[in-house]
Each structure stands twice: as structure tokens, then as C-alpha cells.
Amino acid sequence: MKSVAWPLTVVLAGFLNQLHAAELQINITGQGCVLPAAASCGPYTISFDVDTLSGHQQQGLATVNGVSYVVGFDSGPLALTNFQESFGGHFAYVRLTTGALSFSALPGVSDLALDTQNFLWDSANPEQPLPQSQFTLANYLLGLSGDSFGVDGALEAGLAVNQDVGLENGTIRVTAVPEPGFLALVLAGFAGAWLTNGRRRTP
């Protein structure tokens, strides 16, 4: 086993590094209805990758029992890639774009909003405030994954739709996007392990 330890250690180190990945993939699914009469309804899907270190980012803080919490956040323009939307059998794709994300977790002013392309998304259920020492945009978004929301949002006419579409209850999924260098590292590590193990078995 000693002969294969170094490539596996390299792979493990690369994997642990991905826990701090800056790029995330966001998928939002739910039900939408064409406005204003809601005559046609169906499922919608929105997905994109976001660079959580991009753009201007500003925190609003509140101190409770000596601990500072991030209770407000505003950002933009965030760098987005691979933006995709679908509704009613129609599909659109934009390779590069930008967006803005903000939230407030103050009592009576609870809100989470995302605005990009023709997609507007507003939820009254933001994630619970994180201590400032633990807060990054990536950590915050990963904490939202799996949550379901009562959504007040819309797809404005354009891209995949030629009429405004109102968005209802939605579910968000957030996952880390492996960097290309990390994928190469994984392949190199396993290749090294295979070659080293093969040498050991050669008479």
C-alpha cells in the first residue's frame, strides 16, 4: 500500500480543497403560469453557475451577545456562466452573463432576491444568519440547497418565453462546480495509483 499512498494523498488533498470551491451551480425548479390570466401553467427550470468571489459584495451586520452576524447582504454584478431556462417546452441558453443577489434577515424585513437575465426571483424565506466569522457567499448558498420556497418571481418576456411568466413555489439545489485543474488532478492521481500498483504486480 505504501507505493500508492502518494497519488491517493494528492487526490484527497484536491478533494478537500474543493470544499472551499468558489464556483457553484444553482438549479431552481417549480411551477410557472403565463401572465396575466394564468391560462397556461407548467414546470420551469432555471440553472446557472456563479462565481461567488466575483462582483461587489457588501455585508450588513448585527451583534448579538458579542457575536457579529451577517443579517443583510448585497452583491453585483456576479459573474454567471451556463445560464439555462426552460418553460412549457421552450429552452434558452446564455454562455456568459451577470446577476445580483441580496438578502435581509432582519425581523419584519425577511427577503432573498436574485435578478439575472430575464429571471427575477424573490423569496420571503432567507437562510438563518451566519456568524461573520463563518460567512462566505458560497457557504450561504450551499446552506440553501434543498430548501423549498414560496416564490414571488417571474420570467420576463424574452429568451425561452414570449410572454411574462409568474413563478410559484420553487426548490433550490446548490452544488460545487469542480475546477478543471481538480479534475485533471483526480485523473493523474488515479493513473499514478494504477501504474504504481501495476509495477508491483509485474514479476
Total number of strands: 11
The number of helical runs is 3
N- to C-terminal distance: 17 Å
Structural class assignment: alpha+beta
Radius of gyration over all CA atoms, rounded? 21 Å
The helix fraction, in percent, is: 10-25%
What is the string of SSEs from the N terminus onward?
HEEEEEEEEHEEEH
Beta content comes to over 45%
What strand line-up does the widest sheet have? 1-2-4-5-6-7-10-11
Number of domains: 2
| Major beta sheet summary | 8 strands, antiparallel, barrel
Contiguous low-pLDDT stretches (5 residues minimum) are 1-20, 181-194
Mean pLDDT: 80
Global shape: globular
Characterization of this structure:
The chain has 203 residues and is α+β, with helices and mostly antiparallel strands. The chain is globular, with a radius of gyration of 21 Å. The chain has 2 domains: 1-21 and 180-203; 23-177, no CATH class. Mean pLDDT is 80; it is low at 1-20 and 181-194. Strands 1-2-4-5-6-7-10-11 form an 8-stranded antiparallel β-barrel. The two termini are 17 Å apart. It contains 3 helices and 11 strands; from the N terminus they run αββββββββαβββα. The protein has helices spanning 5-17, 137-144, 180-201, and strands at residues 23-34, 41-51, 56-64, 67-87, 90-106, 109-116, 119-123, 130-131, 148-149, 153-155, 165-176.
